[in-house]
Request: fold
Amino acid sequence: MKREPTIRLADLAIGYTTRHSVKTVCTGITETVFSGELTCLIGENGAGKSTLLRTLSGFLPPISGEITIMDKPLPVYREKELATVISVVLTEKSNLQNMTVEELVGMGRSPYTGFWGRLSAEDRAKVGKALEMVGITGLRGRMVQTLSDGERQKVMISKALSQETPIIFLDEPTAFLDYPSKVEILRLLGRLSRDFGKTIFLSTHDLELTLRVADRVWLMSKPGRLQTGSPENLVIDPETGRFYFRP
Amino acid sequence: MKRPVAVGMILLGVSILVLFFLNLLLGSVSVPAGQVWTILWGGEAENTIWQNIILKSRFPQALTALVAGAGLSVAGLQMQTVFRNPLAGPSVLGVSSGASLGVAFVVLLSGRLGGVALSRLGYMGEFAMTIAAIVGALAIMLLIVWVAQKVRGNVTLLIIGVMIGYVATAIIGVLKFFSAEEDVRAYVVWGLGSFARVSGGQVMTFVIIMAILLPLSFLLVKTLNLLLLGDGYARNLGLNVRRARMSVIVSAGVLVAIVTAYCGPISFLGLAVPHLCRGIFRTSDHRILMPATLLAGAALALLCNLIARMPGFEGALPVNSVTALIGAPVVAVVLFRRRKEDMGE
Reply:
């Protein structure tokens, strides 16, 4: 799969605007994310990982700077259009009930379905493929409330795949999972990015695992700084290495 | 549509027909079934009194119950989905309190200001009460919509809605305190809720309004399905969450406003029927839940109306008591059985 720039950030400043003030979390981000790669965003709590992800998904306006997604500025995208370019897996744990895995993954097709949201035969086939790509075809008839946390995470990833977007953002997909499941999910995401040329960008707290699976690591540190590099480079660098190996 | 779903829908449809006919058949005056059938199809009955009872009393009442039950249940389903709260219902946003407030103003203040107790005005009084209820309910709904634009969280909005309801109730309390006894009585009777109050021409108006509003609420099924996933996912799937939330609140609010205006505040149906349907059909898909809720709401309202009018009670039971007495155990049984099935899996 080709390695192409899909997300370009130019002098981006992120943060929150409230009625009275602007709280800037991180400034001067000039970076590129590539397709076919697994990019991991690490950093302490409160460093701004979620803010960055929310800004990139279009949930939050940037303070300043530009975000270009697939050669087009993010603000130019219409809601429906953006839904076919970026899909997300969020931390918010919805208390969905009485919905089968297949139905939930089918929701990923909704940017493409008509007024009533009916799935065509083609949509169903794509749902089937999304289940297969994650290896959860066996779960298709299960009710979502009966799934384990790991299974549920796979279902949400499968939903993102059925959305057929070139870019997938995941906010701490490995939180709440036991160690083997963490490894499994990250390996899966690495494989999806390489085999299908997806741009996968995720935030995580699992440092050692990112060293093993990430193609590129973004490290956000508290005073609003962002450093990027290959996992090895970040470990070798004396400044960022401290983040990995703390006394 | 899968087969069990189709079967369920057909069963609900048939039960509506049966219950509707029973509503015409049963009552304090016994009319032979054959005669009811003839009258229903426009034939001449052997006894004009029977004809009057069926056409002027039982038929409008059954029709009102059917439509009101459907409307409240659909509104309840919409509220529960948009607030992602199983305890949400038509009354949570203070819309029905708004209707009560409107009626309270008219009923309780007219005696004091106009010098005529509204309760003695008959048909004009009824009409004034309906208008007052619609105005009151819609006013509160607009207030809620305005608040919904300002606040972000669903829970905040829900709490504000409940608070508005309390304020309305408090104002009603004050009004009651300063009113003549017979006006208070008229207000209390209105507050008990009834499918029988709507008379003659008003029934047709009510039915026509609801026949327009209910299909309109069906237009929101895809929106509601997306809202189930939570705001973040819904937005990522291309939904304008703010606009969606607003349309659902307006849709549900208007339904509740109209039903409350014509029937008084009917409790419980709107809360219970969506749970009942989720339990029966075991789905969260609004393409199934919407029609199911509509049908089940209509059926349950007809059943409650029938029980409220059972021989022996002679119309003495307020519908509100019956909806809760019948509805609560039914819902509890369905939910309990489902819980056990889930554990067995």
